[in-house]
């Protein structure tokens, strides 16, 4: 069984909203931590973490996890000694929790202490009845809270500095109420008279939120129990993360829609040949090679590759020479690929990014059914796409074997296709 122990101001009964909040916290914590012990120890209604002003009425509350093998019955331990669960009247009262229908949760069990005294101070533990034989050594960390009895809340003071200061707690046995307290000298001794202590305690509890707005307005009180932020800052803290989340979600949606649009555009581009009226078998093969490349590699193709191919009397189909004005790009690509014996694909980072270069490669590979062949030149180091990963390529990046590169390229273009007749 797992526990969440909280320390709250005394009330006659836990209202519905508080119960729902605790249940939600337990459910979220359970989902986040799986089978690990989940705990949340806190002191509500007090400006101190574990200190209780003598004479106060307080509750110890324990919310337990339920399982079929374990009940919702719990026991309270004080300073390693079990308290009597029969205490249902008087200054100390015990209320047991019950299983919440259709859930694995238990309702909140409470141990109420009226007119808190110094004798009530100590270490309190909330344990499952199932652990009765081992509660002294098998306590779960989240089910323990240390409570101290004090005559008044210590309060804070804000040291004078050139920059924004952080509030410091007054020494034990002293308190500071006013927001203009700037040194330890402003921490006053706790009143000896009980009525005066109650008076100062009530004033501190009602005015603590407004404290330090002059000297420590930018800092949080020690242990984070009280916020010193202005209403505008609080709104900003709530609104800005919401706006950031909204912007992030919109960015993700935009990226998703853009990617989806790009995929559709790519599919449309690659499938555009469906609208071209042609018969591959009737396109005459009048060219030796169709050159497929990215426009960003134009200089190398136009000034080095193309002249080299022409010097060997190869009939080259290349866009800036052979594309017919007035015809669509798709018509020209069809004529180039199916009118050539082979396609020479210049593999580079730019050609892989170019939709038109990839489109030409895609259809050149598809033309393989008619005997067409694809040759690959590695222009720069990059990862080959899956569709040509199995093709042996010519490596232009190997500068030591450039002569060998051209010789192999010429031979590859001249080599007859399987369906070609070789004339001797």
Task: Describe, in plain words, how this protein is organized in 3D.
This protein has 424 residues and is an alpha/beta fold. It folds into 3 domains: 40-150, Immunoglobulins (Immunoglobulin-like, Sandwich); 156-216, no CATH class; 287-414, Toll/interleukin-1 receptor homology (TIR) domain (Rossmann fold, 3-Layer(aba) Sandwich). Helix content is 31%, strand content 19%. It contains 9 helices and 18 strands. It has helices spanning 16-33, 194-207, 231-270, 298-311, 319-322, 329-338, 349-353, 355-366, 402-414, and strands at residues 3-9, 51-53, 58-64, 74-78, 81-82, 92-95, 109-113, 122-128, 144-150, 156-157, 168-169, 174-175, 188-189, 287-292, 316-317, 340-347, 373-378, 394-395. The strands form 5 sheets. It has a 5-stranded mixed sheet, with no helix packed on it. β4 (74-78) and β5 (81-82) form a beta hairpin. The relative contact order is 0.07. Residues 1-42, 131-139, 207-215 and 217-230 have low confidence and may be disordered.
């Amino acid at each position: 069984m797992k526990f969440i122990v909280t320390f709250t101001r005394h009330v006659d009964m836990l209202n519905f909203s508080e119960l729902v909040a605790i249940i939600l916290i337990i459910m979220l914590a359970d989902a986040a931590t799986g089978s690990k012990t989940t705990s949340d120890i806190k002191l509500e209604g007090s400006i101190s973490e574990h200190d209780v002003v003598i004479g106060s009425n307080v509750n110890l509350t324990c919310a337990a996890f339920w399982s079929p093998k374990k009940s919702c019955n719990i026991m309270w331990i004080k300073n390693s000694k079990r308290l009597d669960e029969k205490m249902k009247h008087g200054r100390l009262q015990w209320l047991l929790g019950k299983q919440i229908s259709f859930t694995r949760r238990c309702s909140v069990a409470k141990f109420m202490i009226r007119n808190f005294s110094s004798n009530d101070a100590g270490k309190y533990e909330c344990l499952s009845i199932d652990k009765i034989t081992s509660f002294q050594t098998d306590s779960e960390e989240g089910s323990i809270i240390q409570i101290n009895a004090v005559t008044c809340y210590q309060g804070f003071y804000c040291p004078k500095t050139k920059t924004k200061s952080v509030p410091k707690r007054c020494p034990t046995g002293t308190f500071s109420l006013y927001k203009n307290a700037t040194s330890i000298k402003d921490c006053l001794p706790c009143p000896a008279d009980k009525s005066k202590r109650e008076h100062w305690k009530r004033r501190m509890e009602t005015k603590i939120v407004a404290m330090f707005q002059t000297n420590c307005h930018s800092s949080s009180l020690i242990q984070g129990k009280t916020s010193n932020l202005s209403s505008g800052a609080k709104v900003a803290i709530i609104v800005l993360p919401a706006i950031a989340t909204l912007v992030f979600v919109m960015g993700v949606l935009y990226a998703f829609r853009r990617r989806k649009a790009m995929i559709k555009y790519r599919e449309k581009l690659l499938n555009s040949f469906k609208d071209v009226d042609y018969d591959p078998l009737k396109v005459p093969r009048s060219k030796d090679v169709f050159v497929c490349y990215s426009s960003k590699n134009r200089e190398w193709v136009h000034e080095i590759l193309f002249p080299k191919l022409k010097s060997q009397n190869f009939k080259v189909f290349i866009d800036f020479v052979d594309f017919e004005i007035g015809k669509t790009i798709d018509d020209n690509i069809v004529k180039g690929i199916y009118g050539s014996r082979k396609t020479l694909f210049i593999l580079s980072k730019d050609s892989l990014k170019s939709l038109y270069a990839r489109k030409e490669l895609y259809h050149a590979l598809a033309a393989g059914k008619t005997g067409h062949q694809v040759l690959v030149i590695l222009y720069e180091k990059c990862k080959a796409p899956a569709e040509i990963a199995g093709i042996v390529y010519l490596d232009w990046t190997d500068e030591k074997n450039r002569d060998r590169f051209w010789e192999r390229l010429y031979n590859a273009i001249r080599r007859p296709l399987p369906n070609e007749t070789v004339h001797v």
